[in-house]
Write a structure and sequence with these properties.
4 strands, alpha+beta, two-stranded antiparallel sheet
């Protein structure tokens, strides 16, 4: 696939969504420019003059989940920033590193192997691969591929997870 053959919006949707190549596939075909479907109109872009340099990403200590201040901090950070970092959550660093490594390995798999887990193809509802959003719903596509894992203790479907995720 060449980047010039993706000028038609239908071809782009087919390549990215239906064929399961995702944004990763776009990044591998030597694009000269970002496809217009992924470009925010100027009026929707972040105004650099509104960025406050002296603030940092909120860091929330969740060592005491029962403290009402924790929930209030999460709500405030989510509404003001859209994201935050939590600390003292009790998840060992090794577990977090293993999750990141598994995600990297998954996205390094050939497209055919990743495609098996597209939301509409996945052999299990506990693993879903998706990319962007529907062009009929979203004004601008998001430059992202997403792998979602749901874990339910004792659920047999973990046997159907991608081998690199186990």
């Amino acid at each position: 696939m060449s980047s010039s053959s993706l000028s038609d919006p239908n071809d782009l949707t087919d390549f990215v969504v239906k064929q399961g190549n995702g944004v990763k596939g776009l990044s591998e075909i030597d694009l000269k420019t970002v496809p217009r479907q992924y470009v925010q109109p100027p009026e929707e872009r972040l105004d650099k003059n509104q960025v406050v340099d002296d603030e940092s990403i909120p860091v929330i200590d969740v060592s005491n989940w029962d403290d009402p201040k924790v929930a209030a901090s999460i709500c405030e950070a989510a509404s003001k920033w859209g994201f935050f970092q939590i600390v003292n959550h009790g998840i060992p660093l090794e577990v977090l590193d293993n999750v990141k490594e598994a995600a990297h390995k998954f996205f390094q798999l050939p497209t055919e192997d990743r495609r098996k887990y597209l939301k509409e193809n996945s052999p299990t509802p506990t693993v879903q691969l998706s990319t962007s959003h529907s062009p009929s719903v979203e004004m601008v596509l998001e430059w992202k591929d997403v792998l979602i894992h749901f874990y339910v203790p004792g659920d047999e479907s973990t046997n159907l997870w991608p081998p690199v995720s186990k």
